[in-house]
Amino acid sequence: MKTLLTLISTLFIILIFSNSLFAKTFTVKYAHAGSADPSSNYTVGANFLKYYLESNSQGRLKVEIYPGGTLGNMRTLIEMVQMGTLELAHSTTSGYGWFFPQIQVLGIPYLFPNDQVAEHVAKGELISDIRKAILKKTKSIRLVGAANQARWRCFFTTKKQIKTASDLKGVKIRTIPAPLQIEMVKYLGGNPTPTPWPEVYTSLASGVLEGLKLAVSDIVTYKMDEFTKYGTWDNHAYLWGLVSANNDWLLNLPKDLQQIIVDGVQKMLIVQQEYTKHLEVLAVQSFVEKSKGTLYMPSTDEQATFVAAKEPMIQWFKENIDDGPMWIDKVNQSISKAEKDIENQRNDVLN
Questions:
Q1: Backbone angles phi, psi at 241, to 5 degrees
Q2: Phi first, then psi: what are they for 90, rounded to 5°?
Q3: d(CA 177, CA 179)
Q4: How high is the pLDDT of residue 58?
Q5: Which tens digit of pLDDT belongs to each residue from 319-351?
Q6: In angstroms, rounded to a whole number, what is the distance separating the alpha carbons of residues 43 and 272?
Q7: What is the pTM of this model?
Protein backbone atom coordinates (compact mmCIF):
# COMPACT_ATOMS: atom_id res chain seq x y z
CA MET A 1 0.00 0.00 0.00
CA LYS A 2 2.82 2.37 0.92
CA THR A 3 4.54 1.59 -2.39
CA LEU A 4 1.30 2.30 -4.28
CA LEU A 5 0.85 5.61 -2.49
CA THR A 6 4.44 6.54 -3.24
CA LEU A 7 3.93 5.72 -6.92
CA ILE A 8 0.73 7.75 -7.09
CA SER A 9 2.43 10.70 -5.38
CA THR A 10 5.33 10.49 -7.80
CA LEU A 11 3.03 10.40 -10.82
CA PHE A 12 1.07 13.33 -9.41
CA ILE A 13 4.25 15.39 -9.01
CA ILE A 14 5.35 14.49 -12.56
CA LEU A 15 1.93 15.51 -13.90
CA ILE A 16 2.05 18.86 -12.13
CA PHE A 17 5.61 19.46 -13.33
CA SER A 18 4.70 18.56 -16.91
CA ASN A 19 1.68 20.86 -16.89
CA SER A 20 3.72 23.72 -15.51
CA LEU A 21 6.24 23.28 -18.30
CA PHE A 22 3.51 23.19 -20.93
CA ALA A 23 1.91 26.31 -19.50
CA LYS A 24 5.13 28.32 -19.42
CA THR A 25 4.89 31.51 -21.45
CA PHE A 26 7.61 33.25 -23.43
CA THR A 27 7.66 36.97 -24.20
CA VAL A 28 8.43 38.01 -27.77
CA LYS A 29 9.39 41.67 -28.16
CA TYR A 30 8.96 42.67 -31.80
CA ALA A 31 10.08 46.13 -32.95
CA HIS A 32 10.13 48.14 -36.15
CA ALA A 33 10.92 51.72 -37.11
CA GLY A 34 8.09 52.10 -39.61
CA SER A 35 4.80 53.93 -39.35
CA ALA A 36 2.60 53.18 -36.34
CA ASP A 37 -0.51 54.28 -38.25
CA PRO A 38 -3.19 51.55 -37.97
CA SER A 39 -3.45 51.30 -41.77
CA SER A 40 0.29 51.07 -42.45
CA ASN A 41 1.79 47.83 -43.70
CA TYR A 42 4.08 47.79 -40.66
CA THR A 43 1.13 47.86 -38.26
CA VAL A 44 -0.94 45.40 -40.26
CA GLY A 45 2.02 43.03 -40.35
CA ALA A 46 2.81 43.41 -36.66
CA ASN A 47 -0.80 42.77 -35.65
CA PHE A 48 -0.91 39.67 -37.84
CA LEU A 49 2.32 38.39 -36.28
CA LYS A 50 0.97 38.87 -32.77
CA TYR A 51 -2.27 37.09 -33.65
CA TYR A 52 -0.49 34.21 -35.38
CA LEU A 53 2.14 33.57 -32.71
CA GLU A 54 -0.24 33.82 -29.76
CA SER A 55 -3.09 31.80 -31.25
CA ASN A 56 -0.93 29.02 -32.72
CA SER A 57 1.01 28.63 -29.47
CA GLN A 58 -2.17 28.51 -27.37
CA GLY A 59 -0.95 31.58 -25.52
CA ARG A 60 2.52 30.25 -24.70
CA LEU A 61 3.97 33.09 -26.77
CA LYS A 62 3.11 36.62 -25.67
CA VAL A 63 3.97 39.27 -28.25
CA GLU A 64 4.81 42.86 -27.34
CA ILE A 65 4.92 45.29 -30.29
CA TYR A 66 7.22 48.33 -30.26
CA PRO A 67 6.29 50.37 -33.37
CA GLY A 68 7.42 53.55 -35.05
CA GLY A 69 11.00 53.61 -33.82
CA THR A 70 9.95 53.43 -30.15
CA LEU A 71 13.15 51.52 -29.38
CA GLY A 72 15.34 53.27 -31.96
CA ASN A 73 16.17 53.35 -35.64
CA MET A 74 16.77 50.27 -37.78
CA ARG A 75 20.45 50.00 -36.93
CA THR A 76 19.69 50.27 -33.21
CA LEU A 77 17.06 47.53 -33.46
CA ILE A 78 19.48 45.14 -35.15
CA GLU A 79 22.12 45.95 -32.53
CA MET A 80 19.56 45.11 -29.82
CA VAL A 81 18.87 41.77 -31.48
CA GLN A 82 22.60 41.14 -31.59
CA MET A 83 22.94 41.88 -27.87
CA GLY A 84 19.90 39.80 -26.97
CA THR A 85 17.84 42.66 -25.53
CA LEU A 86 15.29 42.33 -28.36
CA GLU A 87 13.87 39.09 -29.72
CA LEU A 88 12.67 40.14 -33.20
CA ALA A 89 13.37 43.20 -35.34
CA HIS A 90 12.07 44.34 -38.70
CA SER A 91 14.39 46.39 -40.92
CA THR A 92 15.21 47.25 -44.49
CA THR A 93 18.72 46.48 -45.74
CA SER A 94 19.98 49.74 -44.19
CA GLY A 95 19.78 48.22 -40.72
CA TYR A 96 22.34 45.58 -41.66
CA GLY A 97 24.78 47.54 -43.78
CA TRP A 98 26.93 48.75 -40.86
CA PHE A 99 28.20 45.21 -40.16
CA PHE A 100 27.36 43.33 -43.37
CA PRO A 101 27.89 45.64 -46.36
CA GLN A 102 27.45 42.70 -48.72
CA ILE A 103 23.69 43.00 -48.17
CA GLN A 104 23.81 46.01 -50.50
CA VAL A 105 23.79 43.48 -53.34
CA LEU A 106 20.00 43.47 -52.90
CA GLY A 107 19.92 47.19 -53.63
CA ILE A 108 21.93 47.34 -56.86
CA PRO A 109 19.81 49.57 -59.11
CA TYR A 110 17.65 48.03 -61.82
CA LEU A 111 18.86 44.52 -60.89
CA PHE A 112 15.46 42.91 -60.28
CA PRO A 113 13.25 43.19 -63.37
CA ASN A 114 9.86 42.76 -61.70
CA ASP A 115 7.89 41.62 -58.65
CA GLN A 116 7.69 37.98 -59.67
CA VAL A 117 11.46 37.60 -59.91
CA ALA A 118 12.18 39.41 -56.64
CA GLU A 119 9.51 37.43 -54.78
CA HIS A 120 10.95 34.18 -56.13
CA VAL A 121 14.46 35.18 -55.07
CA ALA A 122 13.19 35.94 -51.55
CA LYS A 123 12.41 32.23 -51.12
CA GLY A 124 15.64 30.89 -52.58
CA GLU A 125 19.32 30.26 -52.02
CA LEU A 126 20.46 33.89 -52.06
CA ILE A 127 18.55 34.75 -48.89
CA SER A 128 19.69 31.48 -47.34
CA ASP A 129 23.31 32.39 -48.11
CA ILE A 130 22.83 35.87 -46.63
CA ARG A 131 21.33 34.28 -43.50
CA LYS A 132 24.32 31.98 -43.08
CA ALA A 133 26.83 34.76 -43.69
CA ILE A 134 25.20 37.12 -41.17
CA LEU A 135 25.00 34.39 -38.53
CA LYS A 136 28.60 33.36 -39.13
CA LYS A 137 29.78 36.94 -38.74
CA THR A 138 27.68 37.92 -35.71
CA LYS A 139 27.07 34.56 -34.01
CA SER A 140 23.79 36.02 -32.74
CA ILE A 141 21.66 37.44 -35.59
CA ARG A 142 19.53 34.93 -37.48
CA LEU A 143 17.68 36.25 -40.53
CA VAL A 144 14.25 34.62 -40.37
CA GLY A 145 12.64 35.93 -43.54
CA ALA A 146 12.67 38.44 -46.39
CA ALA A 147 10.03 39.96 -48.64
CA ASN A 148 8.98 43.26 -50.16
CA GLN A 149 8.35 46.06 -47.69
CA ALA A 150 7.11 49.05 -49.65
CA ARG A 151 7.13 48.32 -53.38
CA TRP A 152 9.82 50.01 -55.54
CA ARG A 153 12.02 53.03 -54.96
CA CYS A 154 11.48 55.78 -57.53
CA PHE A 155 12.66 59.38 -57.85
CA PHE A 156 10.40 62.10 -56.42
CA THR A 157 11.38 65.75 -56.77
CA THR A 158 10.18 69.14 -55.60
CA LYS A 159 11.08 71.53 -58.42
CA LYS A 160 10.93 69.77 -61.76
CA GLN A 161 9.86 66.59 -63.54
CA ILE A 162 12.66 64.06 -64.05
CA LYS A 163 12.31 62.29 -67.39
CA THR A 164 15.87 61.17 -68.09
CA ALA A 165 19.01 60.77 -66.01
CA SER A 166 20.34 64.07 -67.32
CA ASP A 167 17.44 65.84 -65.57
CA LEU A 168 18.94 64.76 -62.22
CA LYS A 169 22.05 66.87 -62.71
CA GLY A 170 22.75 68.82 -59.53
CA VAL A 171 19.46 67.85 -57.84
CA LYS A 172 19.92 67.30 -54.10
CA ILE A 173 18.63 63.74 -53.64
CA ARG A 174 18.23 62.25 -50.19
CA THR A 175 20.00 58.94 -49.65
CA ILE A 176 20.71 56.79 -46.63
CA PRO A 177 24.41 56.59 -45.72
CA ALA A 178 24.81 53.39 -47.78
CA PRO A 179 27.76 53.90 -50.18
CA LEU A 180 25.98 52.13 -53.04
CA GLN A 181 23.05 54.58 -52.96
CA ILE A 182 25.41 57.53 -52.82
CA GLU A 183 27.44 56.25 -55.76
CA MET A 184 24.31 55.59 -57.81
CA VAL A 185 22.95 59.12 -57.41
CA LYS A 186 26.40 60.53 -58.11
CA TYR A 187 26.75 58.43 -61.27
CA LEU A 188 23.38 59.66 -62.56
CA GLY A 189 24.50 63.26 -62.04
CA GLY A 190 22.55 64.05 -58.92
CA ASN A 191 23.85 65.52 -55.68
CA PRO A 192 23.58 62.71 -53.08
CA THR A 193 22.59 64.14 -49.71
CA PRO A 194 22.61 61.56 -46.89
CA THR A 195 19.93 62.59 -44.41
CA PRO A 196 18.62 60.84 -41.26
CA TRP A 197 15.00 59.81 -41.68
CA PRO A 198 13.63 62.08 -38.88
CA GLU A 199 15.10 65.10 -40.70
CA VAL A 200 13.75 64.35 -44.18
CA TYR A 201 10.42 66.18 -43.86
CA THR A 202 11.96 69.43 -42.55
CA SER A 203 14.80 69.18 -45.06
CA LEU A 204 12.27 69.09 -47.90
CA ALA A 205 10.41 72.02 -46.40
CA SER A 206 13.57 74.12 -46.14
CA GLY A 207 14.97 73.17 -49.54
CA VAL A 208 17.97 71.30 -48.15
CA LEU A 209 16.57 68.36 -50.10
CA GLU A 210 15.08 68.57 -53.60
CA GLY A 211 14.33 64.92 -54.16
CA LEU A 212 13.87 61.48 -52.65
CA LYS A 213 14.41 57.84 -53.55
CA LEU A 214 11.25 56.31 -52.11
CA ALA A 215 8.17 54.28 -52.94
CA VAL A 216 5.02 56.28 -53.64
CA SER A 217 3.32 54.64 -50.65
CA ASP A 218 6.03 56.05 -48.36
CA ILE A 219 5.76 59.46 -50.02
CA VAL A 220 2.06 59.63 -49.16
CA THR A 221 2.20 57.87 -45.78
CA TYR A 222 4.83 60.24 -44.42
CA LYS A 223 3.31 63.34 -46.08
CA MET A 224 6.29 63.98 -48.32
CA ASP A 225 3.77 64.72 -51.06
CA GLU A 226 3.32 68.14 -49.48
CA PHE A 227 6.62 69.04 -51.16
CA THR A 228 7.39 66.43 -53.82
CA LYS A 229 4.99 67.01 -56.69
CA TYR A 230 6.89 65.11 -59.41
CA GLY A 231 7.38 61.34 -59.46
CA THR A 232 9.35 59.28 -61.98
CA TRP A 233 8.34 55.64 -62.24
CA ASP A 234 11.86 54.27 -62.82
CA ASN A 235 11.70 51.44 -60.21
CA HIS A 236 15.40 51.52 -59.49
CA ALA A 237 15.37 49.40 -56.33
CA TYR A 238 13.16 46.80 -54.70
CA LEU A 239 12.43 47.75 -51.10
CA TRP A 240 13.30 44.70 -49.03
CA GLY A 241 11.89 44.01 -45.58
CA LEU A 242 13.96 41.67 -43.40
CA VAL A 243 13.15 40.20 -39.99
CA SER A 244 15.89 38.87 -37.72
CA ALA A 245 15.82 37.04 -34.39
CA ASN A 246 18.37 36.70 -31.63
CA ASN A 247 19.80 33.28 -32.37
CA ASP A 248 20.28 32.07 -28.78
CA TRP A 249 16.78 33.13 -27.78
CA LEU A 250 15.19 31.40 -30.79
CA LEU A 251 17.08 28.12 -30.50
CA ASN A 252 16.54 27.88 -26.75
CA LEU A 253 12.78 27.91 -27.17
CA PRO A 254 10.88 24.61 -27.31
CA LYS A 255 11.13 23.14 -30.81
CA ASP A 256 7.45 23.61 -31.61
CA LEU A 257 7.62 27.30 -30.67
CA GLN A 258 10.70 27.79 -32.86
CA GLN A 259 8.72 26.47 -35.80
CA ILE A 260 5.71 28.65 -35.01
CA ILE A 261 7.91 31.76 -34.90
CA VAL A 262 9.61 30.97 -38.21
CA ASP A 263 6.26 30.26 -39.87
CA GLY A 264 4.66 33.33 -38.32
CA VAL A 265 7.41 35.73 -39.40
CA GLN A 266 7.43 34.41 -42.95
CA LYS A 267 3.65 34.58 -43.21
CA MET A 268 3.70 38.12 -41.79
CA LEU A 269 6.18 39.21 -44.46
CA ILE A 270 3.90 37.86 -47.17
CA VAL A 271 0.93 39.68 -45.61
CA GLN A 272 2.94 42.91 -45.72
CA GLN A 273 4.14 42.23 -49.24
CA GLU A 274 0.65 41.75 -50.63
CA TYR A 275 -0.96 44.48 -48.55
CA THR A 276 1.59 47.03 -49.72
CA LYS A 277 0.47 46.43 -53.31
CA HIS A 278 -2.97 47.61 -52.25
CA LEU A 279 -1.41 50.59 -50.48
CA GLU A 280 0.44 51.52 -53.67
CA VAL A 281 -2.82 51.75 -55.59
CA LEU A 282 -4.28 54.04 -52.93
CA ALA A 283 -1.07 56.09 -52.75
CA VAL A 284 -0.97 56.67 -56.50
CA GLN A 285 -4.56 57.85 -56.44
CA SER A 286 -3.86 60.16 -53.51
CA PHE A 287 -0.66 61.54 -55.01
CA VAL A 288 -2.31 62.39 -58.31
CA GLU A 289 -5.79 63.45 -57.19
CA LYS A 290 -5.36 64.82 -53.69
CA SER A 291 -1.80 66.16 -53.83
CA LYS A 292 -2.03 67.22 -57.50
CA GLY A 293 1.22 65.47 -58.22
CA THR A 294 2.44 64.00 -61.50
CA LEU A 295 3.72 60.45 -61.95
CA TYR A 296 5.77 60.12 -65.10
CA MET A 297 6.36 56.78 -66.84
CA PRO A 298 9.65 57.00 -68.80
CA SER A 299 9.69 55.72 -72.36
CA THR A 300 11.96 52.79 -73.22
CA ASP A 301 14.70 55.16 -74.39
CA GLU A 302 14.31 57.41 -71.35
CA GLN A 303 14.38 54.43 -68.97
CA ALA A 304 17.62 53.28 -70.61
CA THR A 305 19.35 56.45 -69.39
CA PHE A 306 18.62 55.40 -65.81
CA VAL A 307 19.35 51.70 -66.29
CA ALA A 308 22.80 52.70 -67.57
CA ALA A 309 23.75 52.95 -63.87
CA LYS A 310 23.31 49.20 -63.34
CA GLU A 311 26.60 47.91 -64.74
CA PRO A 312 28.79 50.66 -63.19
CA MET A 313 27.19 49.97 -59.80
CA ILE A 314 27.83 46.24 -60.22
CA GLN A 315 31.44 47.03 -60.98
CA TRP A 316 31.65 49.38 -57.98
CA PHE A 317 30.25 46.63 -55.76
CA LYS A 318 32.80 44.13 -57.03
CA GLU A 319 35.68 46.50 -56.42
CA ASN A 320 34.65 47.97 -53.06
CA ILE A 321 32.85 45.23 -51.14
CA ASP A 322 34.62 42.18 -49.68
CA ASP A 323 33.74 39.10 -51.73
CA GLY A 324 31.84 41.43 -54.08
CA PRO A 325 32.27 39.26 -57.21
CA MET A 326 31.00 36.20 -55.33
CA TRP A 327 27.84 37.98 -54.18
CA ILE A 328 27.21 39.36 -57.67
CA ASP A 329 27.45 35.82 -59.02
CA LYS A 330 25.04 34.61 -56.34
CA VAL A 331 22.41 37.25 -57.08
CA ASN A 332 22.71 36.77 -60.84
CA GLN A 333 22.29 33.01 -60.47
CA SER A 334 19.25 33.53 -58.25
CA ILE A 335 17.65 35.90 -60.73
CA SER A 336 18.37 33.58 -63.65
CA LYS A 337 16.84 30.62 -61.81
CA ALA A 338 13.81 32.68 -60.83
CA GLU A 339 13.20 33.77 -64.41
CA LYS A 340 13.39 30.17 -65.65
CA ASP A 341 11.07 28.89 -62.93
CA ILE A 342 8.55 31.65 -63.60
CA GLU A 343 8.64 30.97 -67.33
CA ASN A 344 8.05 27.26 -66.72
CA GLN A 345 5.13 28.01 -64.40
CA ARG A 346 3.63 30.39 -66.95
CA ASN A 347 3.99 27.84 -69.74
CA ASP A 348 2.38 25.20 -67.55
CA VAL A 349 -0.71 27.38 -67.34
CA LEU A 350 -0.78 28.38 -71.00
CA ASN A 351 0.15 25.11 -72.72
A1: -115, 130
A2: -105, 135
A3: 6
A4: 96
A5: 999 999 999 999 999 999 999 999 999 999 999
A6: 9
A7: 0.90
